[in-house]
Design a protein that fits this description.
Elements (H helix, E strand, L loop, with lengths): L7 E3 L25 E3 L7 E4 L10 H9 L19 E4 L4 E4 L4 E3 L8 E3 L14 H17 L2 H5 L9 E2 L9 E2 L2 H9 L5 H4 L3 E3 L5 E3 L2 H9 L4 H14 L1 H14 L7 H10 L20 H15 L4 E4 L9 E4 L3 H14 L13 H7 L4 H10 L6 H10 L10 H9 L31 H16 L17
Antiparallel strand pairs: 1-6, 2-7, 3-4, 4-5, 8-9, 10-11, 12-13
């Protein structure tokens, strides 16, 4: 691994290499660094050519949309006046900077950005395809788990007629589905304005756009039981949907880390096909610089192998007063300890996450012990520990497999804890803000939060995954 001796931000007058292995050798050479990472938000720094930034102080609430945009150069947040034809704007999820006209700036001399060269390694060789038996076992095991894991709970639940999973995602894009085939159809219907935007992009409001399949990443986070159905639906959409679907697929994988969960179904696509399409950018850094599907999946697999089964968790800004937390992560006791520390710290990193938002990404890549340990830990939570209870009620807003906590929710409803009638805006001492679920409609007390979480959990129970499509890509399939 090589690092830039001097990491530079450069205008278009200087070279910004596309080869990820090239590092700046030092003075007198001025060569842009193509692998900068922010130490605050952990994001790979992106850039937009022929653009500048209108001020030193970014609108933090809007930076997320800029960062996630497949076409940041079209954002009204950036300055596109003709005088910036040779300028280049750089941005992460929490800050921005620009190099104007024919200039260059040393990263070390920036006023407020905590950016640094993250190293330059030769492009990795494509990983060898996994053994046929291993891939077959992975697909079969995950599918069987999805079919079995909710069976006992659903036996005790009355079906909701016509129940579907629904997302209010974007203008004219509101997916609703109950089967894998309906999910495939929703994917293919998710870019009604592609001609206007010049690709599989949707309008979120008057000014912002988002990747057309971004709602599929939300599904990954909310419903682990639907991973096989989504993986198979993606295979069919990519096979049947032409280049628009393939660009949407590449963009989904390049911009959402939760798509790690879909590798048993997405990796076989990259191994079997050689599509010419590219994602317009990569919010994760995967696939750079060409952003082809096989490059993105290659880097996903390498990242997954690196972090899978980590024995320690590093939680950025989840400690008291925004400090970092770190601790061992190999058992239910370790999990319970980190949950307690982050709950009592009461931080809401980036203003959009909650004290336990770190749990979601951990579930995506965690070992087999983690999910049952989490369910047991939450199901046996001390109802008298206010920070722990409030952290859990806040985490309900993310709706991650709420169906697994129906017994806990029903128990609280049957026998109200002491905090049941407290205002939903209740905030433990030292907490940064109130719980996100207090903003759910018609919620005024903590008991209301429980009742609304119960309603949403039982809707999840009413929408089990129905896999009515065959696997297209996998061992022995072409």
């Amino acid at each position: 691994m090589k690092y830039c001796v001097d990491a530079w931000l450069v205008s278009l007058e200087y070279e910004l290499p596309t080869d990820p292995s090239i590092a700046n050798p030092g003075s007198p050479t001025i060569l842009g660094c193509n692998h900068l990472v922010c130490r605050k938000c952990d994001a790979v720094v992106r850039h937009a050519d022929h653009r500048s930034v209108p001020s030193m102080y970014p609108p933090v609430g809007e930076l997320q949309a800029l960062y996630d945009s497949p076409h940041p150069e079209q954002s009204p947040l950036l300055d596109s006046r003709p005088l910036h034809d040779d300028s280049r704007a750089y941005f992460c999820r929490c800050d921005w900077a620009a190099v104007e006209l024919s200039g260059a700036k040393l990263v070390a001399h920036l006023d407020q950005q905590e950016w640094a060269c993250a190293g330059h390694a030769p492009a990795a060789k494509p990983p060898k395809p996994p053994a046929v038996a291993a891939m077959a076992a992975a697909q079969a095991t995950l599918t069987a788990q999805a079919e079995a894991q909710t069976a006992e709970l659903r036996k005790r639940h009355v079906d909701v007629e016509g129940a579907k999973i629904r997302f209010q995602y974007a203008v004219n894009v509101n997916p609703a589905f109950a089967t894998a085939s309906e999910l495939r159809d929703c994917l293919l219907a998710s870019y009604p304005d592609a001609a206007y935007f010049g690709g599989p992009v949707v309008g979120k409001n008057r000014d912002d756009t988002a990747p057309a399949w971004g709602w599929a990443a939300e599904l990954v986070g909310m419903r682990s039981d639907w991973w096989p159905a989504l993986g198979i639906a993606l295979q069919h959409a990519v096979k049947d949907g032409g280049d628009l679907a393939r660009v949407a697929f590449a963009t989904l994988l390049a911009n959402y880390r939760d798509t790690f969960a879909l590798l048993p179904w997405t990796a076989p696509i990259a191994q079997a096909e050689s599509f010419e399409v590219r994602a317009p950018g990569s919010g994760t850094g995967w696939g750079m610089p060409d952003c082809r599907i096989e490059s993105i999946v290659r880097d996903q697999q390498a990242s997954y192998a690196e972090i899978r089964g980590a024995t320690e968790q590093f939680l950025y800004q989840y400690g008291r007063n925004g400090a970092n937390l770190k601790g061992p992560f190999t058992s239910e006791a370790d999990l319970r300890a980190l949950l307690a520390r982050s709950a009592h710290a009461g931080q809401f990193p980036y203003g959009t996450r909650g004290p336990w938002s770190w749990v979601g990404p951990a579930l995506i890549v965690g070992d087999a012990w983690l999910r049952p340990a989490l369910v047991h830990t939450l199901s046996t939570i001390d109802a008298g520990d206010e920070p722990m209870v409030l952290a859990l009620l806040d985490w309900f807003s993310e709706e991650r497999d709420l169906w697994q906590l129906v017994a806990l929710l029903d128990g609280w409803d049957a026998r109200h804890p002491a905090w049941w009638d407290q205002p939903a805006e209740t905030k433990p001492a030292g907490w940064q803000r109130t719980i996100r679920s207090s903003h759910w409609p018609e919620v005024s007390t903590l008991g209301d939060v429980v009742l609304e979480a119960t309603r949403r959990a039982k809707l999840q129970l009413a929408t089990p995954p129905i896999v009515d499509l065959p696997v297209l890509y996998g061992p022995g399939i072409s």
